[in-house]
Structures
1.
Amino acid sequence: MHFFLDVALPLPLKDTFTYVITSAEAKCIQPGMRIIVPFGKRKQYTAIALKVHQNPPKAYEPKHIEGIIDRSPVLSTIQLSFLQWISSYYQAPLGLVIRTALPTVMLLESETEIVTHHWDTISAELTKGARLLLDQLPQNSVLTLTQIQQLILVKNPYPILKELAKPGYISLKEEVYAQYKPKTQSEIILHPNMNSDNALKSKLYELSANAKQHKTFLTFLQQRAPVVVSEFSKLETVSPSSLKTLIKHQVLLKQERIIDRLPAKTASDEVLLPLSLSQEEAKNSIDEFWKSKEITLLHGVTGSGKTEIYMHLISEQLAAGKQVLFLVPEIGLTTQLMQRLYRFFGQHLAVYHSKYSPTERAETWEKVNTTNSKSLLVLGARSAVLLPFQDLGLIIIDESHETSYKQYDAAPRYHARDAAMVLGRMHNAKVLLGTATPSIESYRHAKNEKYGLVSLTTRFNKAKMPEISFVDLSKAYQKKQMNGHLAQELIAAVGQTLDAHKQVLLFQNRRGYASFVECSQCAHVPQCQSCDVSLTYHQVNNELRCHYCGYVEPYTPACVACGTITPQTQGLGTQQLEEEVRQLFPLARVARMDLDTTRKKNAHKNLITAFARHEIDILIGTQMITKGLDFEHVTLVGVLSADNFLHFPDFRAHERAFQVLTQVAGRAGRVGDSSKVLIQTFQPKHPVLKYVQEYDYLSFYEQQLIQRDQFAYPPFVRMIRIELRHKNMATLLQAGDWLKKGLHERFSFVLGPAPPPVGRIRNYFILYSLIKLPLDASQTSAKERLEKLLESFAQVGVFKQVKVVTDVDPQ
Ligand code: ADP
Ligand code: ZN
């Protein structure tokens, strides 16, 4: 009898592959185990076992697997079906989803480069195979897996390599070059020599001759080991020189220990704050809804204390030994939240960040994946939803309206909010969406009682919502009441705030100096060479930059088209705003927070800390300052222009405008003080602005719903976007025509193909088409039809180089 195994290769290939296995292998292989398989020309990959069966593949002669890595599955049944759901829903190859979800360290392949380190001796604890291999490996070098295999003539070196990696004889090259270096701290413990009572007693007796050493040692004994050297040395009863001597004489032992970014804390020593009455009520309704519904939406105004409610819910789950996933839109912007969670949950908290090194991520991955890791709280952005949870009790999706939950730039193009809801159901876990500005989709589900709906309409501690008013820019320009880009009304308000020793946030949604440079004579605007956009002027290096591809060119005052030396900068960037503000308020302490000022590690955190300590009076920033910041002394928020939000060519533009303006306004007056928001605009009567001003989400929602219904947009249809890219415009247009015909034959509601607002990026011309699917139509069959169509598209010779991207539920 013959046995076969279907596996998923960690490659962007649509199909699964079948291999031959022996009956013994058939007995021990379970779905979710890692298997080494040959693939292509003498290459090996780590694949994931999917299914053992007895049906030989028809199209090809299957090869035999090379080996089995695991004794038990690394992907649980739930996890595997979750990844399969992502693959089929978002139309991404399963192998690619697996590659995204698994740490690279776990998916070695022939080309993986391995670094050997230096060693003097080989530990006797290693297995014989490992010692033999180590004997033959050159030290301090880089070898690919294939080279290692040739060197030692072992077909399946994986288990041995795994063994050698642990004590650090070897590591993956990727890890060595990872930017992150583990943080270490020096600690002291009692030297093993002192482990018996007798030894300790006689040492104390001996030391009593030396007062300083005696005192230092006694102090040490009163502490709970391990003792952190830097803190210990500061104690009054400790003499640093005596400490040195004690270490030298082997009374104490000094060791370096790798610590997480978050210092290890053995127990959380702080208790949760008691909830206010309305928070308590909200929490009770959430609990009540969860009895009958999987998902509840917590719609709470900014500053209503949602985070505190989350923490109470989390703490209950941890107490019950469950795992909790806390999703945030961007982990880099959650310094404040991270600290708050850490204070209460201490060692239960694991932070998962795509910028951490592969090893670190692998560590968290394994931590989550062990069945006995109870009471774990994982704080992470989008990709944390792909972690292999074992006993998930609760998922919190904070700021659930944020678009950064959707991965748009690479497959799998999944929406972490939507995927989290599916994951929640698979684990039988509860799901809470929290936001002050729900997406129209989420709110509709809540209204239709598909989700529970809990509202918090007042701020914590009765803090007042800031009063929002508008500055009519057309009037201000007419009456010459502008000073650069700031209206006198806004300038006056900033002045008053500074006089009252309060803080100001100024929001301008564009970084750089000016959006573009325009020649005052011929109106020439410098463009990016490879994208269809004008370049942004950055004053710092006096250069022009493309915000799409990063292209940079030096700025020349003379117009390249006509030579006139009077270019005009147009539009306002945060850099120029900063300059104007500094001139207007020379005594104020001004800082700027945007992508350019927060590139360096910790820069964001440092800015936040400085602002929180009131070392900054005016903070100028992009979208970044709208996100979840909680500062006590901000009583004025200024928005330099609301107009670009209102006019963005997208059906969600108004939803975004409402969200951004409400969120940025929500940074003001979070503690007691009455506060103000001033929004500059040419359209002070715009309906969206009125809803923002009145904090009237409900009317805004109803108005949006009418428009979405009228123009057939979500939540009334589902959408799939097909993107075509090619360097040659003619070929692309031809491809567009081909596809248009195919789409119209198969779907009743298709837009495009047409070029998007920026029609060329990095020298690739782009076409978008949009398929709208009625809610009652089967999504699965629609996706199958689409897949078939795209397969035949790929068969057309001339279109071989056309890149096709499918984006399900585009944002
Ligand atoms: P949201 O997340 O809804 O915008 P936060 O959770 O940040 O609001 O709460 C706003 C402010 O109120 C924070 O400064 C927070 O520390 C404070 N706060 C909220 N709930 C409580 C509570 N129960 N006890 C004390 N302070 C609270
Ligand atoms: Zn460009």
2.
Amino acid sequence: MSDKFDVIVIGAGPAGYVCAIRAAQLGLKTACIEKMQNSEGKGVNGGTCLNVGCIPSKALLDSSYKYHEVSKGLEKHGISVKGVGLDVPAMIDRKGAIVKQLTTGIAGLFKANGVTSLFGTGKLLAERKVEYTSSDGEVTILEADNVVIASGSSPIDIPVAPVDGEVIINSTGALELQSVPARLGVIGAGVIGLELGSVWNRLGSEVVLLEAMEDFLSIMDQQIAKETQKILKKQGLDIRLGCRVTGSEIKGRGKSKKVEVTFQTADGQEAKETFDKLIVCVGRRPYTENLLAPDCGVALDERGSIYVNERCSTNAPGIWAVGDVVRGPMLAHKGSEEGVMVAERIAGHKTQINYDIIPNVIYIHPEVASVGRNEEQLKQSGEPYKVGIFPFVASGRALAADESEGMVKILAHADTDRVLGCHIVGPSAADLVQQVAIAMEFGSTAEDLALMVFGHPTLSEAVHEAALAVNGHAIHIPNKRKR
Ligand code: FAD
Ligand code: AMP
């Protein structure tokens, strides 16, 4: 192996591996270092997203939804299903097979694009040198014209509920449970807590989510958040807001071990709950452990993220950082786009990212998705806006599919009619919101969307009708007074 590269990427998650592939496509001699190992102790690419994040969680969300449907949801379609069985280890194995297929796929993509894949740990030294410690402990000093840090994030631990990997687990452990806990506690009703809570709720756990904040999904559009909360309550998720966990104690031995959780309720009382398992989902923090030599010149911001500008350039020349380890939402697609931008900038292009249009999805059922600004943000900014809402109960396609919960909400500028945001809770919300994201990227007005022809019957018609409703022209619902 030659020790000099055009680009060295540290971390092969969705930010790093995408960056490495794009850099190699652009003719740059590229290496990507990854330290993660699979259960067999072999180096594995794909980072959090492919191994313990987006993909395995969606595999379990989809499997558990199928189980829920056949065991509870088909009678009204005239289908009765008897003797439904559940094999949790088989479900977990299927998830594992998908992870394996995708992570080995990255190895194939690296090979096809000429990326040098190195398993082991990378540490940034001064002057664009990288200390590479291979999986078997051999140390090599590599050099590059550009180094891209894509070291991602790790789950936040809280001392009041220390993860023991057995009774108290984090998101990674929650993707590996081999049986359904009778009573499952989740600390944090954020995106990951809701997704994992939904998986085990559908499979039969009694799920209690303890959330410190008093508002549900406080950073989301609150009308959509309230609708989502109602839907989840109907599904049996016990979401307790304003409940801050203050302690935990493992009780019992062996298989009968449980955890008693102490928390402070919204009205200041101390309360206790006992669970068979407890998932700690209180967020993630940027991961920079053993990554930066003291003289490497890279600064962190006050939250421990690597400080970067809009173009993902750090304050050290030739050193870039992308993905969860830098500011902004911790989302796989945000990191991947940053990876592409950096690769292209290194190759001399002028690529930019529009950080105002990054979709965000919660993969519960129905899905919750948003892009752009929400009503609370617009109110706060003082910008004049108008709202168009279309409920799925008025959509023929949604009714036919028995998926009529939720709504599409589009916000547009009151004067220019330009679309400023879209917020959906409902069937296929993730894919529907992307339509509006594309429209926004092209500077669409609500009227532009309204003038488009949408196929019938489709769920997309709900987007069309919401865009029509912005200006009081919806056809399939009575319009609120034109604003
Ligand atoms: P990571 O994916 O964390 O990858 C960083 C990699 O760098 C890791 O593999 C790590 O081993 C490696 N590394 C770190 N330090 C070094 C070093 N010194 N040397 C070598 N290698 C190193 N996001 C979505 O957009 N959609 C979702 O549906 C979604 N679902 C999620 C569900 C769960 C349960 C979780 C936990 C996360 C989810 N996320 C989701 C978030 C998403 O996984 C992250 O935003 C994404 O993985 C970040 O990508 P990244 O490349 O920046 O970092
Ligand atoms: P997210 O940032 O989407 O991953 O969500 C994490 C959630 O965990 C946030 O909504 C936090 O308010 C919540 N949280 C953090 N610490 C605690 C705690 N000690 N008890 C209950 N909820 C918490």
